[in-house]
Specification:
The protein is an alpha+beta fold and 133 residues long. It has a single domain, classed as Ribulose 1,5 Bisphosphate Carboxylase/Oxygenase. It has helices spanning 2-7, 10-14, 30-39, 76-92, 97-107, 115-121; strands at residues 17-19, 22-25, 43-52, 57-64, 122-129.
Length: 133
């Protein structure tokens, strides 16, 4: 994954939070990332919302966005394009950030975090793939 992240143009990489070879971006940056990834031939295989705190990463695995797998009749560029279109559609159907933060608080009742800190910690992990993978 780290090698794939390095294929992204510098502006897209600069917006990423990279931890343990896993990249995540802000919801507002996903269109830019999508365009940058497609330009270098990278597909999106999915992702999930995460609260990335300094002490730990909390994966809101129930808030995921996984495009369909590559179809046998799809060229790689067709698949890459479709995967990003689906990922952007699916992230657009996620609840507002405030609702996801409340869900995280219910799931992890011991997680004491202000709304502002939770909004700052909210990232959208995206898993990338290249044709030769």
């Amino acid at each position: 994954m780290a090698g794939l992240i390095q294929r992204l143009p510098a502006p897209a990489r600069a917006l990423a939070d990279i931890r343990d070879q896993e990249a995540a971006w802000r919801r507002a940056d996903l269109v830019l990332v999508s365009n940058a990834a497609r330009a270098v031939g990278l597909a999106a295989t999915g992702g999930q919302v995460q609260l990335r705190l300094s002490s730990a990463t909390h994966e809101l695995y129930w808030q995921d966005y996984d495009p369909g797998e590559r179809r046998p009749d799809e060229t790689w560029p067709e698949y890459a394009d479709r995967s990003w279109k689906e990922l952007l559609f699916l992230t657009g159907t996620l609840p507002p950030d405030e609702v996801m933060i409340e869900g995280a608080r219910r799931f992890w009742p011991w997680l004491k975090i202000t709304d502002a800190a939770a909004a700052e910690a909210m990232w959208f992990a995206v898993y990338l793939a290249a044709e030769e993978d």
